[in-house]
Amino acid sequence: MSLPFRLAAVAGFALLMALCAQVAVPMVPVPMTLQTFAVLLAGSVLGGGWGAAAVLLYLALAAIGLPVLAEGGSGLDRFAGPTAGYLFAFPLAALIAGQLSRRPLFRSPVRETALMIGAHLLILALGAAWLARSLGPADALANGFTPFLIGAVVKSAGVALCATGLRRLAPFRP
Question: DSSP per residue over 4-47, as a string?
Fold first, then answer.
């Protein structure tokens, strides 16, 4: 696959993350969005390295002030606020999901869904750990982890289904 096509795919997934971030259910202190769906889909379709690159591009766009984060947010302050732990976890989760989804063990829809649930749990755990600094562990768990579990399972199944189809359309080799 050519480098221009890969770069276009990275940019396309960064755009998808920005769009999915706008599908938000306002909650305090962290909104529920479709960002993690797009983050893990990027890793699963593009592979770990290219998927993480898409996430890093997305985060760079947010850092320079483009309104690509949840509820149109942007700026460096978002990387120190309540959502920072989740944002920092995104590239790692895309990398891990992308690397592992390439292995034959995870090629079945059920196993890939389980892998994506694990990647979601990583994002939620790191996000809640960041929140615990300001809210305390119990409140961080109650407000930054537990309410997102059902959505994580649903989004994980969606990632597994969509990734299978997208990989058939444009098979990326890491």
Answer: HHHHHHHHHHHHHHHHHHTSEE--SSS-EESHHHHHHHHHHHH-
Question: Which tokens go with 101?
Answer: 């989804």
Q: What is the mean pLDDT of each run of 10 residues along the chain (174 residues)?
A: 91 98 91 96 95 98 98 95 97 97 89 97 98 97 97 97 87 66
Q: Is 147 exposed, middle or buried (0-12, 13-18, 19+ CB in 10 A)?
A: middle
Task: Identify whether the C-beta of residue 51 lies closer than 8 Å to the C-beta of residue 17.
Answer: no
- Tell me, yes or no, if the pTM score tops 0.90: yes
Q: Please report how many Cα atoms fall inside a 13 Å half-sphere around the Cα of residue 160, on the Cβ side.
A: 22
Quick one: angle between helices 35-46 and 3-21, nearest 10? 160
* Buried residues in 60-86 as b, exposed as e (16+ CB within 10 A): ebbbeeeebbbeebeeeebeebbbbbb
What is d(CA 12, CA 7) in angstroms, rounded to the nearest whole number? 8
End-to-end CA distance of the chain: 10
Tell me if 174 sits within 8 A of 49, measured CB to CB: yes
Which tokens is 86 given?
């989740």
DSSP designation for 60 = H
